[in-house]
Amino acid sequence: MVEQRVSNGLNEFQANRLRVSCQYIDSLLGDIEAILDTAASKAAFPRYSCDITAEQRQTIENYIAQIRAQLARALQGQSLPKENAIPASRAVHVTLGAIDIAAEELKPRYMRGYGQVPEAAAAELNVIASDLQTLVKQLDRCLSQGRSAG
Predict the structure, then answer these.
(1) What are phi and psi of 11, to 5 degrees?
(2) Whose CA is closest to 80, among 15, 10, 4, 13?
(3) Burial, 129: exposed, middle or buried (Cβ in 10 Å; 0-12, 13-18, 19+)?
(4) Is 7 a residue whose pLDDT tops 60?
(5) Each residue of 81-139: pLDDT tens digit?
(6) Angle between helices 54-77 and 12-39 (to 10 degrees)
(7) ∠ at Cα 125 (122, 130), nearest 5°?
(8) How far apart are CA 79 and CA 73, in angstroms?
(9) pLDDT, tens digit, for every residue of 53-79?
(10) How far apart are alpha carbons 135 and 57 in whole angstroms?
């Protein structure tokens, strides 16, 4: 088996490892950005409390930009193209599907595995699940049609 060299002496497997590692690092940087955004969001159930000052946030964002620029230089230096990104609309559709499933599992027939569901609570659970699923379907339909609704 003859190893194929891609650029600057790296074989195709080494080049792929470099690209995948750079993508992983970028993903982790995105996680940090999401933490910063979540801590300052209006989420009903925030995962993080906001203990980072505005000055610290700016410093973090500056370093993230520098790290990303270094990642891009690393790939350019090896003449490696970036992989195509997944369309945001597809990622949102998939996530909405997961939300729809989570809402479906709030229905009484799924809750019975945790014990008997009182009749009044069962009716309320059906309404909660139905309302959530309706909103998710509306949002998904709006995304598919390329328009916004409120």
Answers:
(1) -80, 175
(2) 15
(3) buried
(4) no
(5) 777 778 889 999 999 999 999 999 999 999 888 999 999 999 999 999 999 999 999 99
(6) 170
(7) 125
(8) 10
(9) 899 999 999 999 999 999 999 998 888
(10) 34
Residues of the chain by 3-state class (helix, strand, coil), percent to 5: 70, 5, 30
How is residue 108 written in tokens?
A: 């009484």
- Which one, of 64, 81, 67, lies nearest residue 15 by Cα? 81
Q: DSSP string covering 37-76, please? A: HHHTS--SS-SS-----HHHHHHHHHHHHHHHHHHHHHHH
The model carries a pTM of 0.62
Q: Domain ranges for the chain, please list them.
A: 5-77, 88-145
Q: Which residue has the tokens 């998939």?
A: 94
